[in-house]
Amino acid sequence: MTRRPPVSTAAPGPGAPSEPLVRPVRLRPGARVAVVAPSGPVPADRLEVGLDLLRGWDLEPVVAPHVLDVHPELDYLAGTDEHRAADLQNAWCDPSVDAVLCARGGYGAHRMVDLLDWRAIRAAGPKVFVGYSDITVLHEAFALRAGFATLHGPMTATEVFLKDAATQEHLRATLFAPETVRTLGLDTAAALVPGRARGILHGGCVSMLAADLGTPRARTSARGGLLLIEDITEDPYRLDGILTRLLRAGALDGLSGVVCGSWENCGPYDRVRAVLADRLGGLGIPVVEELGFGHSPTALTIPLGIPAVLDAPAGGGRCTLTAEVPALV
Which residues contact 13 (CB under 8 A, 6 or more apart)? Predict the structure, then answer.
């Protein structure tokens, strides 16, 4: 088991962290990693392949008791809200567990997030936490309720993790040698609005960010932040509505920059780009498109809660997102 940095049990202030969050310790060979399912049901065959990949990295995966459950009436959930919350809670508070990895996203995280004992989670200290999609709700909660940095990255039983070698290698490097992957960005990254910005990284699945608005302990300010957004199966008009809601709520006020990932099955990309340009172009801040994270064929692991610099040069130069410190200590 690795030694973790000390952390206060006092609740973080409301709104939005304007300072870097507490980073967890990097993994070492032999680390125990709990696999949980906070959202949708998990295919058993995919899970086994994912566990074998983790074992190949000399990790010891521990599957939480309810990972393969399916809710008795709502079959889009991986078991009951109480069981999904208990799996995450118990994994986090188990001192022998060094990381908590989500098996998949889907739907359901915001049904169970308020069932978690956030005081106990803060007291247990930071751990590596990895997920994306619906797991965005939990990333926001770990940031705002616990003050912990997390990783927006591929999940153990998802196709991109099982089949894409670049996705696997980037996550492995982030977990074991995070200083080697501080500069992020696939060749697809381009400047939608050129410029350079610095801020604390936050965000994820944009529809989940919009769904979180107005809920208890939700983010109330984006000031000084670099926002990551991506999504899947949201038609351009729905993306327009999601971004418009964030704009009207003031949730984008004070951002220093926006980093866009993938928009898988959201319609022809030229239409998606038109929506992004229309809704984000008036913010007067740099915006980068197609950096390479989210529901994409190759999904980079992006740290949340740490300072980073976004470079979006005009004229077709390479766009990058550079973490100012490694994702893990």
Answer: none
Is residue 18 among the annotated active site residues? no
For the CA atoms of the chain, what is the radius of gyration? 18
DSSP assignments along 116-174, one per residue: S-HHHHHHH---EEEE-GGGHHHHHHIIIII-B-EEE---TTSHHHHH-HHHHHHHHHH
pLDDT at 8: 38
CA-based nearest residue to 295, from 106, 102, 146, 94 = 106
Catalytic residue chosen out of the listed positions 110, 152, 202, 295 = 295
How far apart are the two ends of the chain, measured CA to CA in Å? Answer: 15
What local confidence, expressed as pLDDT, does residue 315 receive? 84
The question of whether 82 is a catalytic residue gets the answer no
Across the chain, where does the E strand assignment appear? 32-36, 60-63, 99-102, 128-131, 150-152, 183-184, 190-193, 195-205, 225-232, 257-264, 287-289, 302-304, 307-312, 320-323
pLDDT tens digits along 214-254: 998 889 888 999 999 999 999 999 999 999 999 999 999 99
Q: Say if residue 44 is exposed, middle or buried (CB neighbours under 10 Å; 0-12, 13-18, 19+).
A: exposed
- The pair phi, psi for residue 93, each rounded to 5°, is -90, 0
> Which of 140, 207, 230, 256 is an active site residue?
230
Residue that wins the pLDDT comparison between 6 and 255 = 255
Quote the pLDDT of residue 18: 66
| Total residue count of the chain as it appears in this document | 329
What is the SS3 assignment for 41?
Answer: coil
Average of per-residue pLDDT across 139-158: 97
Q: What is the pLDDT of residue 87?
A: 98
Q: Is the pLDDT of residue 9 over 60?
A: no
How many Å apart are CA 9 and CA 93, to the nearest integer?
A: 13
Over the chain, what is the mean pLDDT?
94
Beta-carbon neighbour count of residue 98 at 10 Å? Answer: 24
- Catalytic residue flag (residue 295): yes
pTM of the model: 0.93
In whole angstroms, give the CA distance from residue 224 to residue 235.
29
Of residues 133, 207, 262, 296, which has the active-site annotation?
133
Return the DSSP state at 114. G
